[in-house]
Amino acid sequence: MSGPVWTVAKKEVTEILRDKRSLYVLLLLPIALYPVIVVGTTFLAQIQLRKLSAQTHPVWVEGWDALSPELQGLLRDPLVDEDEAEEDLKRGRQLRLELSAPPEPLPGETQDEHYNRALKEDLVRAVVRGVDVLAHLDPHEVPPIEVLYNGGIDASQLTRKRILASLERFEDQEVARRIEDAGLPDTTLTPFETRALDRGREGAMLGRLLGALLVVLALTGSFYPALDLGAGEKERGTLETLLLAPISRQSVARGKFWAVFAISLVVALLNLVSMGVTFAFAAGSLPTMNFTVDLPGLAACFFVLVPLVAMFSALSLATSTYAASYKEGQAYLTPLMILGTVPPLAAALPGLQLDLPMSLAPVLGASLLIKGIFAGTAHWTHGLLVFGSNAVYAFVAVRWVAALYTREEVLWRPAAAAAPDLLGLRREGPPGGAPSMPQALALAVLVLVLQFFVGAKAQQKDLVLGLVFTLVVLVAGTPVLYAWWLRCDLRRTFAWRAPPAWAWGAALLLGVGAIAINLDIGVAQRSVLPPATPEENAALEQLSRILSALPWPVLLGLIAVLPALTEELCFRGFVLQGLRSEVSPALAILITGFCFAAVHLDPNRFFPQLFAGCVAGALVVRSGSLWPAMLFHGLHNGLILGLEALGPETGKLLIDAESSAPTPLLRAIGWSTAGLGAGLCLWGSRRARLARA
Amino acid sequence: MIDVQNLVKVYAAHTPNPVRAVNGVSFTARPGTVFGLLGPNGAGKTTTLRIVATVLSPTEGTAVVGGVDVRQDPAAVRRQIGFLSASTGLYDRLNPREMLGYFGALYGLGGAALEARIDALVDLFEMKDFQDRPCGVLSSGQKQKTSIARALIHDPPVLILDEPTSSLDVLVARTVVERIAALRSSKRTILLSTHIMSEAERLCDEVAFLYRSKIQASGTLAEIQGDQPLEDAFFAKVDEVDRREGASA
Question: For residue B77, which of A682, A367, A469, A244 has the smallest C-alpha distance?
C-alpha cells in the first residue's frame, strides 16, 4: 500500500470508528447474533410449546356421546412417556383436549360448512369423524377415520398430532391383538429392522443455515462503511476537497476500498468467532443445537471469506460512489444486498453441490464451500478454485472502483438531484433530447412486465396475432408513446438518422457471422447451465410446428422483419440512448443486451441473445444510427430461419444435428465474417472520429 | 500566475444531451493580484475554477497554473493550489488539528515540519480554543477558519476561492473577507469567484463578468466600473447580452 493510499485508508477507518452508533451495529450485532439465535430460538419454541400444552383445546368428535368409555378415554388421556418428555412436547402428546359432540350447524349451513367455519374461526382445534368404527372393527375392511384441522393455526396442527398419536397407539394395540389371535409371532410385521446411521459431521442441517447466514452477514458488513465513504462523502461535500490533494484519484479510491475492506473483514471475523464460541458452549447443553465447528474449520471459512469480502467491499463502494446522496446510495445498495443474499440461501438448499462451474460462480461458490466445510465434505482443490476465482472478481471490482473515481459524470452528480422523473410530470427544461437513464431502465422493466403478463397471454390465445400484437403494440408502441409523453426528441431517442456507408457493410457481415458465434455460445451455455426441460422442448417443438405451417413471406416478416424493427426501436433506440446519457457506451451496450435477453423470457437462449444484443448495440454506438442494427437483427433472425429450413443433408454440412454446434465449415465462415464485420465497424468509426477531430 | 485560454467544458459530451457549461473562456490572473470571476449562479464560474484546480478536465482550451498545464501534470498543479469553497469540506468526525494533519500528509508534509506548520496556522487563525473539537460541532465561523487553514497548509502560491462567503451570515462573511484581504502578498495569485459585487469591489484588482458560459467583459476594476458601482456595470452588461442574444435567437 503506497503512502497516500495508507493515509486515506487510515483516516477513513478512524472516521468510521468514531461513529459510535454505526460501530455498535457493525460490531455488536455479530457478537450478539449467534447467542440470540441459539438461546432465543430454542427457548422461544419451548415456551410456545409449553404454553400450548398448558391450554385446553376443544375438539369435536362425531358420535362422541355414543362412544364407549374406553374409546373416550383413548382420545382424552394424554400420552405421556417419561423418557421422551421433550419429544412428547413437540408431538403434542401432552396436550389436554376438551372433547365433545359437534354442536348443531347454523340454519341453512351444511355440516361441512359448519366444520370449516369453526376451524377457520378457531372455535374448535380439530374435528374427528368416523371414530365410532373402532368399537366394531372388521379385519377384512379398512374404514376411514378423518381428522379435520386448520394447518394455518399451530395449536390446530398440534391437536391433530395429538389425536393421530392416540389413534396410532390404538392401531398398534389392534394389530398386536390380531397377530396374537392368528397365532403368529410378534415379529410378523417387522421381518427386519433398518437403521440409518449418519457418519457425517453432526448438525450438518443447522450448518447449512449458519453458513448462509455467515456469508450474508459478511457481505452486508461492507454496506455501511461503503455508503459512508462513497455517497456519504459526496453528500457532505468533502470529496471535492479530497480530490484537490496532489494524489491520484486511484489512490483515493484504493484508500477507501482498503478502509471498507478492513472494517468488513473485522465484521466477518467477529461473526466467525462469535459462531465458534457460541456453538462450542451450546453443544451438549442444548440438544437441538448440536452443531459444532472446529478451529481449522473456522480458519478455512475465514480464508474463503477474505476475497469474497474484498469483492463485496469493492462492489458496495462502487455502487455507493455512483449515488449522489446517502439516501440514493441506500436505494442502490438494496438490490445489491438482495442479489448477494440469494446465492447463500440457494446454497443452503439441498441439491446444489460444489463442482467446477459452481466453484467459479461468484458468491455461490463460496457459499457452497462454507456449507461443505461445515458438513466436513469440502476439498482443498475446491477451496483454491473458490479463493482464486473470488480473488479475480475482487481484483476486477477494485479496478472498477478506481476507474469510477476518474469519471467526472460519476463524481460530480449534484447531491441534491431530484428523484428520477419517470412519469415526465415535472416537464423541466425545454422539450427535446433523449430520455434519462432511470426512464430507460423503467421502460425496460415495463416492457418485461407487459411481455410477461400481456404478451405471453396473447400468444397463448393466438400465436401469430399475439406475436404481432406483442411486437408492435408492447415492444415498439410503448417506447414511442413514452418518448412522446416525455417530450423527447424522437430522432435522438431512436437514433433515427442515415448511417455511414461502412455501417451497412459491417451490419451485413456481422449478421452473417453472428450465427456461428451464437451457436457456439448456445453450446457453451448448455455445458454449464442445466439443459432445457422436456416441457420446454415440447413447447418449442409445438411452436416450430405452428410457425412452419405459415407461408414463407409471413414467417419471414414475423420472425425476422418485425422483431428487427420493433425490438431495435425499443432496446437500441430508447433504452440504449437513455443509458448513454449517464453510463459509458460499453456499459450501456451491456445493460441493454441484458434487458434485451431478459425480455425474451427464454433462459435457454439467454447468452446468445445477450451477445446478439451487444453486437447490435455496438453497431448503433459506432455508427450513430439504428438502421444498421435493424439490418443486423433481421439478417440474423432470417438466416436462423433459413438454416432450419435446410434439408438434413445440407443442414449437416453446417450444423451438428446432435449437439447443435456449428460444423468446422460454418464456424470458419462465421467467425471470419464476423471478424471482418467487427474490423470494418472499428475502422469506419475511427475514421469518422478522426474526420470530426 | 493563472493563464486560461479558450476554455470549453461540455458535460455529457458524448451523450445525446450535452450541456456546454463553459464556452471559450479566457483570462489571466497575475501574481500579487486578486482576480475576480463575477457572475450569477449557473454562469460557469465553479466549472471554470474546478478546471483550473484540475478537478474537472477541459473539453477544449488550456489552463496553465504556475507554468504547468492542467492536462499535462495535474498533480503538480494541485501542489501549487489552495482551494476554498462555500461548502467548507470538513470531516465532521475529525478535529481541526487532525484535518490539517491529514491534508498536510496528502500534500507530502510530515514530522516536525508538519507540526510546526499546523501550529503556525492555529496561531494565525486563532484556532487554539477549538482545535481539538470535532469539526461537526464547530460554529460556521470556526469551520470557515479551519477550511482556510486547510487550504493554506502547504503554503500555496495560488489560492482559488469559490464563493467563499455565500453560505455565511453577514458577520462571519465580513471576517472571511478580511482574512482573504490579509492573504494578499506579492507572490500569491488569488482567483476569486463571487456573485457578491461589494466583495469583489473590496478585494479584486481585476474582474471578469461571466454570463451565459462566456466572459462578457474583463479588465481592471476601474476599467469595468467606469463611474458607476460594479453592480450597475454588471447589470448593464447582462441586459446588453440578453438583448443581443434574445435578438439573435
Answer: A244
Contacts of B79 in chain A (CB under 8 A): 246
The residue among A68, A60, A55 whose CA lies nearest residue A94 is A55
Interchain CB contact of B157 with A (< 8 Å): no
Q: Does B249 touch chain A (CB under 8 A)?
A: no
Q: Burial code of B152-189, b = ≥16 C-beta within 10 A, e = fewer?
A: bbbebbbbbbbbbbbebeeebbeebbebbeebeeeebb
Contact A665, A653 (CB under 8 A): yes
Distance from CA of A209 to the nearest CA of B (A): 38
Above 60 in pLDDT, residue B247?
no
Nearest to A71 by CA among A175, A169, A181: A169
Distances (CA, A) of B50 to A377, B56, B162: 58, 6, 9
C-alpha cell at B114: 508538519
B196 Cα to chain A: minimum distance (Å): 22
A97: nearest Cα among A60, A50, A130: A60
Name which of A16, A236, A244, A626 to mutate to probe chain B: the one with the most chain B Cβ atoms within 10 A of its Cβ. Answer: A244
C-alpha pair distances (Å), A111 with each of A104, A159, A510, A523, B128? 8, 21, 72, 60, 88
Tell me which chain B residues have a C-beta less than 8 angstroms from the C-beta of A492.
16
Q: Distance (Å) from the C-alpha of residue A246 to the closest C-alpha of chain B? A: 5
Nearest CA in chain A to B12: A581
Residues of chain A contacting residue B10, judged by C-beta atoms under 8 Å apart: none
Residue B10 contacts A where some CB pair is shorter than 8 Å: no
Residue A514 CA: distances (Å) to CA of A412, A634, A637: 39, 12, 10
Burial of A172 (C-beta count, 10 Å sphere; 0-12/13-18/19+): exposed
Residues B13-42 have pLDDT tens digits of 665 567 888 888 899 988 888 899 998 888
| ipTM of the complex as predicted | 0.87
Contact at 8 Å (CB) between A185 and A199?
no
Q: What are the phi and psi torsion angles at B64 (to 5°)?
A: -120, 125
CA A329, A331, A334: angle at the middle one, nearest 5? 105
For residues A438 and A419, give the distance between their C-alpha atoms in angstroms, rounded to a whole number: 9
Q: In what order do the strands lie in the sheet with B60-65?
A: B19-29, B2-11, B60-65, B68-69
Contact B108 A246 (CB under 8 A): yes
Kindly list the residues from chain A whose CB atom is less than 8 angstroms away from the CB atom of residue B16: 433-434, 489, 492-493, 577, 580-581
CB A460 within 8 A of CB A443: no
Residue of A638, A591, A604, A619 whose CA lies nearest to A677: A619
Q: Which of B9, B49, B91, B140 should be substituted to probe chain A, the one whose Cβ sees the most A Cβ atoms within 10 Å? A: B91
Q: How far away is chain B from the Cα of A497, in angstroms, using its nearest Cα? A: 13
Q: Choose among A18, A237, A434: nearest Cβ to B17.
A: A434
Please report residues of A whose CB lies closer than 8 A to that of B93. 14-15, 18-19
Distances in Å between the Cα of A334 and the Cα atoms of A1, A328, A341, B51, B207 are 31, 10, 11, 35, 49
- Chain B: closest CA distance from residue A533 (Å): 43
% of chain A at pLDDT higher than 90: 27
The structure's pTM equals: 0.72
Query: pLDDT, tens digit, for every residue of A646-677?
Result: 777 777 778 877 777 888 888 898 899 999 99
Distance CA A410, CA A322 (A): 6
Q: Dig out the grid coordinates for A125 from the structure.
A: 382445534
**What are the tens digits of pLDDT across the range A121-171?**
999 999 999 888 888 888 888 899 999 999 888 889 888 988 888 888 888
Cβ of B75 under 8 Å from any chain A Cβ?
yes
Q: What is the CA radius of gyration of chain A?
A: 33
